[in-house]
């Protein structure tokens, strides 16, 4: 189990948005939900992927001509477990929810 060197509120915000989503999200969606600046969001997505807690994949079809495909991010099974533990530790979800995210797709 790899843990981040330091935990920051922006890291927890980005991780929480991914944990609560039943599907992959692109950076702009995460930016809107966290109300964080794009560099902060992408830095924390890099941290999550570097830990092996999240994976990114590019859209196969580009819905907007002339624009590059968007990259979507989602938590790995290990990432979902680790983020859930962090959310409990930070008081963002009750400890009674432990293990329920995988059953409910993380959508609380």
Automatic annotation (TrEMBL):
InterPro entries: WH-like_DNA-bd_sf, WH_DNA-bd_sf. This is PadR family transcriptional regulator. It comes from Nonomuraea glycinis.
